Amino acid sequence: MATSAKTSERPSGAIHPIAPSRLKAPSGRPDLLPMGVWIWLASELMFFAALFAAYFMIRQVTSDKAAAGAQTLWQSESAHLDIPYAAVNTLILVLSSVTCQMGVHAAEHGRVRRTKGLAAVTAWGMREWYTLTFVMGTVFIAGQALEYANLVSEGHTMQSSVFFSLFFIATGFHGLHVTGGLVAFLFTLGRTYLARRFTHEQAVTAMVVSYYWHFVDVVWIILFSVIYIIR
Description:
It is found in: Cell membrane. The chain has 231 residues and is mainly alpha-helical.
């Protein structure tokens, strides 16, 4: 029994016994996956920074051309956006970061699935929290698609004005990033069903997926403020 305790352990809610050597990172050596993801996110940050720079530059140029006392292009075109609708959609995405972090907390403690009934939220594992996060992200994308459909039905397309060209480009690229995050959640969840043991590597994967998800959430908050609020 003493030997068995040394070779494996079962955290609360874990599916299988976890070998101690697979539960923690090798001492004195950082995980390469998180480091690689941070470097990649830095490059993504530069991409969105360039997008924001182009947005503000074009906005300034068009605003300077407006006649004195007249509405600028940005003021007239942004009036067609449904801000309350977008605010609710934004809230859903922001709250998904909270559920995502709850999933990370569960993964760090080896709690892959819930230990009680579905109604006992405090006993949820990584699967439940990440599934909820996936659903919330999907709702956000569906909401964005519906917003696009409404704008197009009103005649606001990429060709209608430079404002809507930048609107669709900026929010569209962000939507693609959110979709990529949803795929990552499916991969992470699927891996918990295929693997015999929940290991340190799987916990690290769950954490780096959360890094990415928090990143797209922060970018959207900035996008929402710049496009919908600042006129």
